[in-house]
Amino acid sequence: MSDDRRLDVLRAIVEDYVQTQEPVGSRVLVERHALGVSPATIRNDMAALEEAGFIAQPHTSAGRVPTDKGYRMFVDRLSTIKPLSSPERRAIQQFLADAVDLDDVVDRSVRLLSQLTQQVAVVQYPSLRRSALRHLELVPVGDTRLLVVIITDTGRVEQRTLELDAPIAEHVVPELRARLNAAVAGRRLVDLPEPLEQMALAFVAEDRPLVHRVVRVVEDTLAEATEERVVMAGASHLARSGTDFSQTIRPVLEALEEQVVLLRLLTEMAEDTAGVTVRIGHENQHAGLAETSFVATGYGGDGEALARIGSLGPTRMDYAGTIASVRAVARYLSRILAG
Amino acid sequence: MSDDRRLDVLRAIVEDYVQTQEPVGSRVLVERHALGVSPATIRNDMAALEEAGFIAQPHTSAGRVPTDKGYRMFVDRLSTIKPLSSPERRAIQQFLADAVDLDDVVDRSVRLLSQLTQQVAVVQYPSLRRSALRHLELVPVGDTRLLVVIITDTGRVEQRTLELDAPIAEHVVPELRARLNAAVAGRRLVDLPEPLEQMALAFVAEDRPLVHRVVRVVEDTLAEATEERVVMAGASHLARSGTDFSQTIRPVLEALEEQVVLLRLLTEMAEDTAGVTVRIGHENQHAGLAETSFVATGYGGDGEALARIGSLGPTRMDYAGTIASVRAVARYLSRILAG
DNA sequence: GCATGGCACTCGCCGACCCGGAGTGCTAAT
DNA sequence: ATTAGCACTCCGGGTCGGCGAGTGCCATGC
């Protein structure tokens, strides 16, 4: 018995099942793939694969269906990554390049990926904590309110309103603005605390409280992991016809509406920016996602990813194609943000 | 024959059908409602109602189901608005009051409404064109780029990057910022063009090109109807079990993913801010929404609404409850924005 | 003239039944 | 180790009948 052939059989089963959505039997397997052996032989291999937990049969005498473990093996052994066609690449590049600002870039990316994979796409905004700051702006609003606008080098803009106890002294704002910007410009969040503390010392004692409050807001805003934003598109693909998946659609939609769940999905994956991570079925923590797989990778930043992007679909999805699409969009997205 | 009773019958049919989701027959009708007549009498009325197009029977001998026209009549005659319970009101108020910024307010509103109605909720961001400007900020980025940040009195923030041909003269930015703000502060978009033109004249000729470009960006940004933003929540409610609606779910999800469709949905409704508008089934232009109804109203602004908020569900929805919820959320939302 | 009771009729739904086909596992032979 | 043959299982689809809900109509009563 050849282990090699068994893996071939597994691969063939996955491929056929993904395509037809129906349990695949030994006969059609030899017909559609050049396996060079008879159905009976395949049956023996299938029995072994089932014993090992890679495939299962829904009913006593139906064909076989891959299990999560089977998909896992399939994905791990997946060597052939189909590259996208070059018109496809150009289309992606062009579409992303037309974006006018960060919101637009992210929006286009998520729609694009959803379109390419015909699945749900998820994109995380470039992380604030890992971005560098480009500019801080202070805008007095009325007497006792101060609007703090934070602009990062990825083009992300965050705003916070600050309620003050006492009216703002006129002279403080311009000075604070100048010093703040001098202190933070070009720095990443991680490197911020000390320069900011230093800067605060430069003010006269009576202005300190205000300065400290502003500093705190800036730090809080940048630190809030909660503020990580995630956008999603293509939910309608979940309702693709001809699949019992439509029974499962409710919990999936519910999961996808929870920012928290989306975020965990994206961040619980391996930290290396190079590779593409695949989570299959029950490997996802969330119960509602037990029948879905998620393919994700990082984008932006060198070495350490700025944020992540991924595609979610039924476990019976086209893994090779999805991986290729996710990787491609991530690459062009990184390029846009860097340029 | 009493027309009054016929309307009662129609009302009873709608109420029962909304509750049970099943065609309602003459017998159960007299059992569950105190109509004071026999099933046979009801049958006559039903025949008349069917003749008039208010109800229909799915199969020759099944109960009756309201048509779009029937729902329309029902809604138009709907006098009893059930007010929300006072704990409910308090909960709404509290939940919205906890919001930290505009994004948060809108986000909370849409989730809240979705929760209350157990349907899809849609909220439009306060319109830029109708908002007043609070502040304009100019941030030079590098030598040839200028970031324009626009802040409205509703707390909305828009940003645009401007690519310039020539490096920016240092002295221009502060002056421009000051004059711009003097020109626009507190004004609504509609009233902007002249003051801006006037202001541009105050600059020496060589700075005019830059000034004009900035002015143009501001006007364009505020004018772009495209930039109207709409957020949606509660898509999972579409997949509520026990309804053939799950067959129709795909086109609905597709429609809801199109910002354009959402916007049309919200803006094609009557312009009066006071009332709640209801669109039933085919009254919605979009084909995918033929089996849904949409309940919406305006919020913010006095007299003329700043933006709109609404709830979308199957035509067989609880109109009275939905109308009450939409109205309640809109009211509190307006209050928050005004305060 | 409207309401009502009675009655025949129409269908849709459900369970029973049956059959064909696909697929398997096993065994014996190569 | 592979393969052909074969008996067995079981799902899916199709047919059939009976049941029940509901209707429309007619004759009757107030």
UniProtKB/TrEMBL annotation, chains A, B:
Record protein name field: Heat-inducible transcription repressor HrcA
Biological process per Gene Ontology, one example term: negative regulation of DNA-templated transcription
Function: Negative regulator of class I heat shock genes (grpE-dnaK-dnaJ and groELS operons). Prevents heat-shock induction of these operons.
Domain of life: Bacteria
Family: Belongs to the HrcA family.
Domain HTH deoR-type: start-end pairs: 34-60
Heat-inducible transcription repressor HrcA C-terminal domain: residues covered: 103-323
Keywords: Repressor, Stress response, Transcription, Transcription regulation
This protein's encoding gene: hrcA
Gene Ontology MF, one: DNA-binding transcription factor activity
HAMAP family in UniProt: HrcA
InterPro entries assigned to the protein according to its UniProt record, in alphabetical order: DeoR_HTH (IPR001034), GAF-like_dom_sf (IPR029016), HrcA (IPR002571), HrcA_C (IPR021153), WH-like_DNA-bd_sf (IPR036388), WH_DNA-bd_sf (IPR036390), WHTH_transcript_rep_HrcA_IDD (IPR023120)
